[in-house]
Structure prediction request, 507 residues.
Amino acid sequence: MLLISPPLAKACEPPAGISRLAGCLRGNGLECTLWDANLEGQLYLLEQRQNPADTWSKRAYKNIGDNLHKLRSRNLYTNNDRYQRAVRDINRALTQSCQGFSCSANLADYQDSAFSPHSSSDLLRAAEEYRNNIFFPFFRKRLPHLLKHQADQWIGISVNYLSQALSAFVLAGFLKEEYPAYTLVAGGGLITSWLRSPGWQNRFTDVFDHLVEGPGETALLHLLQQKNNNSTEKYCPPDFTDLPLADYLSPGIILPYNASSGCYWNRCAFCPEKAEGSPYTKLSAKQVCDDLQSLIRTLKPRLIHFLDNGIAPSLMKEMIKIPVHTDWYGFARVSQELCDFDFCRDLRRSGCRMLKLGIESGSQEVLDAMDKGINLQQVEQALQALHRAGIMSYVYLLFGTPAETRQEAQQTLDFTVRNADLISFLNLAVFNLPRNSEERHELQIHDFSTGDLGLYADFIHPRGWNRKAVRRFLTDDFKAHPLIRPILQRDPPFFTSNHAPLMTAAK
Prediction:
């Protein structure tokens, strides 16, 4: 089976989805090949030289090779100014490659003004008109070589982000026409969200033979082996064989790893994970440590990226007892453990480089309304303990939730200013209402004009704190504050939290 990760997503680490599938398939006696068409596709676009007139684009094209080399070298990450210039120059060349097409691409996103990934009709049309897509020449060149070595006529495409949807359908349209004997399977986070949306109807039967919901390992084994649902499979860690590990846009291998799926808290109001009904499952802490030690011996990664919605405190404790001696980072809930300096110090010694914290608000009333299960005193204690222990914090804040007004947003601003010396990085987001959220019935809903596959709905804010006012507050008040502006400025452009733990001059 050929497993494909399509363009476009951040190309700083190997794709976790197809690597997990490969581990499962190979561990259960099935052959597969991995193709990171996302990384290769971006490098292909960077090779398509244009003839720009402006000085910046000329410099960007001239220095593509040098800047890619720098991005794969550790020295670049010690100087934020040099890092930002190299990344922005690479991105400039990437955007310039789209001249003459209706699309736009950067290092983190792909859009096409002629097609919307929120519309099933547009996606089907993109599959029909695949020859007009910017990635088609690349697909046409690479696929014959890849398929020549496939014993079984199965192809799986992993679609996790909206930015991958259009190219996935372009790829599928090409395959259906040129290789009609192959069975096409689509899965991944975005496919799962569609399948779990209210009123879902599958309009893609002419493009994909199977759509897989949730973690795809078991479902794929059932398809390939024609097993019944009571069959069990052997667990195996992810397998990164076939992937060009030296080519990713990072200084060494960043190893993505899932210790769990779903969320162990699973109570936050308006959470997409809860809205989709994703169950929480996890590997034992011992299994995780065994997996990581084995992968580290084989691959010698620069950094481990935990993809969990929240790293369980029990796993943190196990990693303190059995350190992996490699830097790692991921999302964590603010817990009592993180308020303890001794625990945080031991966590840093275990390799913890950075924790991403979904704090969301500096208003206790808003946190309580969202059922976050944290209090601001705990949050500030945790930020202090992490900072003192040498663990960077990447803080996520959410504005415009139904319980918030400008007064609560100001409290979040005050909280951030008060703790500015403790916060390494910030992510600011404006609230989107998941269409299938349980709490949507409490609000007056208006659909976004984004098509039948839109995952979010617009609503009339019950307290008058509309999106326009929220954005104005963020621009005029929050981002402009002299203590907050430097935190935002050191955020790695495009790669954001994926490169943040690599920055040695973060504070």
User: Anything to note?
Assistant: The first strand starts at residue 2 and ends at 5. The two ends are 46 Å apart (CA to CA). The CA atoms of residues 124 and 364 lie 46 Å apart.
